[in-house]
Amino acid sequence: MIKMSKILNKIKLHPIMAFAVLIIFTIVLSGILALFGVEATYTTVDVATKSYNQTLVTVESLFSLSGLKYIFSSTVANFVSFTPLSMLIIILIGLGIMEKSGFLKTLITLITQKQQKRTVTFMIALISILLSIIGDLGYVIMIPLSALIFYYGRRNPILGIVTSFAALTCGNGLSFLITSVDSSLIKTTIDSASILDPNYVFSMLPYLFIMVVSIIILAIVITAITEKLSIYKVDKYEFKEEKKEFKLTKKEKRGLILALFAGIIYLLVFIYNIIPGLPFSGNLLDYTQELYIDKLFSYNSFFSQGFVFIVTMLFVILGLFYGIGARTIKDNYELCDDLVFSLDGIGKTIVLIFMASVFINVFKKTNIGVVFTALLTNLIQASSFKGIPLILLVLICSAIATVLLPNSMSKWSIMAGTLVPLLLNAGISPQMTQLVFRFGECMTYGLTPVMAYFIIYIAFMDKYNQGTRPIPLLKSIKYQVPYALATTLVLGIIIILWYVIGLPLGINTLPTI
Questions:
Q1: Which among 495, 412, 385 is positioned nearest to 193, based on CA atoms?
Q2: DSSP state of 230
Q3: 328-342, 394-408, 470-484: range with lowest mean pLDDT
Q4: 253-285 as b/e, with b when 16 or more CB fall inside 10 Å?
Q5: Which of 139, 271, 468, 487 is the most core-located residue (most Cβ within 10 A)?
Q6: Which whole number is the average pLDDT over 325-332?
Q7: Residue 281's pLDDT band (boundaries 50, 70, 90)?
Q8: Least confident stretch, 6-10, 61-65, 235-239, 434-438
Q9: Ramachandran bin of 50, using left for φ above 0, alpha for ψ from -120 to 50, beta for the remaining angles
Q10: Residue 110 burial (CB count, 10 A)
Q11: Rounded to an integer, what distance in angstroms lies between the CA atom of residue 39 and that of residue 367?
Q12: Residue 41 bridge partners (DSSP)
């Protein structure tokens, strides 16, 4: 293992080439696994008949003529529909005008110039964790913003990227409110538990107490790792301009006031349209859903479908009105130049995202992640563990499965039919089971290139890299390892303490039955 690590460190592949190697490796591996007939079964729930069913899943070989046909025929359509690409391009339009007009520099400098570096890092970590409520959009907002916050604070922007990505991934399953992902998981949990307990009810604030504690502690730990360790590990960044004392001019003050006023008006209109029950309100909701979180984030809600554009328009408004007030935007020509500012030199990023989209598509098609997750679930079922050992086993297996199958709903649809009744029979509540599963995801979510938004992290690392060569894929992952290990320790201790003491997880929710 040590020799293999040394070999990998010497082979410093360009991230684009690294993804190409991963694609070839996945194709060959799928052929080998399919040749040996690697398969697994997992338990699903038939809601109509109130019974558990067995589903067989096998590794699909792409090391064949039909497999190659699939790759060539699906690549273009998959790339066009690859969500991180469209979200990134749209968000960059808004970020471009905010940055070029001077709004971000003025606002960030004004807020952070008298703050301690540790305080700024903590706020980035905390906000990134809390943004789990808006799902994957947090990656395309916080990663570039964190880089700029560090940059305007005369700190290494790569350190800001590493910190925000760590907080976004390690805090992926942490939210004191029910998110759209949690809502989908809860439905599967209820179905899996209802056969053994027909009267089972899931609280609407199931994890309020444990999540508040976990979020605060994790933000503190991430801050400590950044300031004590990562700051010395990331590649150095040299500023071309000398540090100047910041003084807010009358033009900048006028632009800031105008931008914030326009932004507040826009947000008030937006917020009013996601509040149900008021006159002419709630226009962005999907009223076919029962729960408010589903009305907000369901696939058919305007809020969910248009959220990226809604945020981009907020950024455009802030940048535009600041530019008008500060006189940094004088005509429509300058406005258009500002809109495309962040898209300059994006060619390498698009190629990188293309290779990542091909890899993720190929890996998903092979079913390797699904089969491996099912095998881990069967391992848990075959064990005779109870209590704390069982919780730790579920925690570890969830973390391992996340490396190959990052999607929460896909993973839980495989594991829930087995884990929920298994732990229920062991006296552990379904809410606790789902929480352990989510905590396990947090531990390794930032270590896998199979996760679609990992490519946003890689792309911005490359954007701010000043070296003669891009930062290798393996090195980018190594930056996240200390955060993953710390998250494993912190969340593991919290979940065990909560279980041993018997503290309520949230309102009307206990770890045991």
A1: 412
A2: I
A3: 328-342
A4: eebbebbeebbeebeeeeeebbeeeeeeebebb
A5: 487
A6: 91
A7: confident
A8: 6-10
A9: left
A10: 15
A11: 10
A12: 56
What token pair was written down for 3?
Answer: 């020799």
What are the extents of the domains in the chain? 2-501
Write the single-letter amino acid at 222: I
CB-CB neighbours of 288 under 10 Å: 10
Distance CA 55, CA 477 (A): 34
Between CA 137 and CA 447 the distance in angstroms is: 19
Closest by CA to 87, choosing from 305, 270, 273, is 305
Buried b (16+ CB within 10 A) or exposed e, 428-462: bbbbbbbbbbbbbbbbbbbbbbbbbbbbbbbbbbb
DSSP element (H, E) containing 158 = helix 157-170
**Helix and strand element counts for the chain (H, E):** 22, 2
Phi/psi at 249 (nearest 5 deg)? -80, 170
- What is the Cα–Cα distance from 70 to 91, expressed in whole angstroms? 31
**What are the φ/ψ torsions at residue 417 (nearest 5 degrees)?**
-60, -25
